[in-house]
Amino acid sequence: MGARKHNSAEARKEALKQTYFAKLRNVPTSPRKMRLVADMIRGMEVNRALGVLKFSNKEASARVEKLLRSAVANWEEKNERKAEEGELFVSHISVDGASTLKRLRPAPQGRGYRIRKRSNHVTIYVDTLNNDNN
User: Fold this and answer.
1) Tens digit of each residue's pLDDT (9 = 90 or more) over 30-88
2) What is the 3-state secondary structure (H, E, C) of 6-69?
3) Can you tell me the mean pLDDT for 12-16?
4) Residue 14 lies in a domain
5) d(Cα 128, Cα 36) in Å, to the nearest integer?
6) Which residues of 52-79 are buried (b: 16+ CB within 10 A; e: fewer)?
7) In which band, very low, low, confident or very high, does the pLDDT at 120 lie, cut at 50, 70 and 90?
8) Reduced to 3 states, what is the DSSP secondary structure of residue 133?
9) 3-class secondary-structure state, position 60
10) In the predicted model, is pLDDT for residue 111 greater than 90?
11) Domain membership of residue 41 as a residue range
12) Cα separation of 31 and 45, whole Å?
């Protein structure tokens, strides 16, 4: 590896030490449905977001709640202390499309209608209020 690549790789590793995130990949829910849940908690304080997700009646909210708890645990692991009340917030959340399974559904007169079973990737970043990078 050349010196330039090595230096940029080291800089990337240092930047990752200061970011706290969790990823959920290949969730068998359409990205559109997951984005509705993501929009509910974007920019919110973590404890308030967990409450919103817990009492939401959307199926995707249970998965996002578990992912948010994982991101908070990652923050606690990197900082070697417990998060205090009101300290963390959801700094960034993104929902990207993943692979789509293509299936055929029987249709009249010997035809077949294509069914697309979509999936998505969710990434949540948490941060403290004093390290606001937005």
Assistant:
1) 999 999 999 999 999 999 999 999 999 999 999 999 999 999 999 999 988 898 888 99
2) HHHHHHHHHHHHCCEEEEEEEECCCHHHHHHHHHHHCCCEHHHHHHHHHCCCCCHHHHHHHHHH
3) 87
4) no
5) 24
6) bbeebeeebbebbbebbebbbebbeeee
7) very high
8) coil
9) helix
10) yes
11) 20-131
12) 23
Q: What is the CATH number of the domain that holds 50?
A: 3.90.470.10
Please tell me whether residue 79 adopts helix, strand or coil conformation: helix
3-state secondary structure of 129: helix
Structural domain tally of the chain?
A: 1
Q: Give a yes or no: residue 4 inside a domain.
A: no
47 occurs within a structural domain: yes
**Residue 74 amino acid letter:** N
Contact 122, 67 (CB under 8 A): yes
Model confidence, pTM: 0.86
Instruction: Tell me if 31 is assigned to some domain.
Output: yes
- Average pLDDT of span 8-22: 90
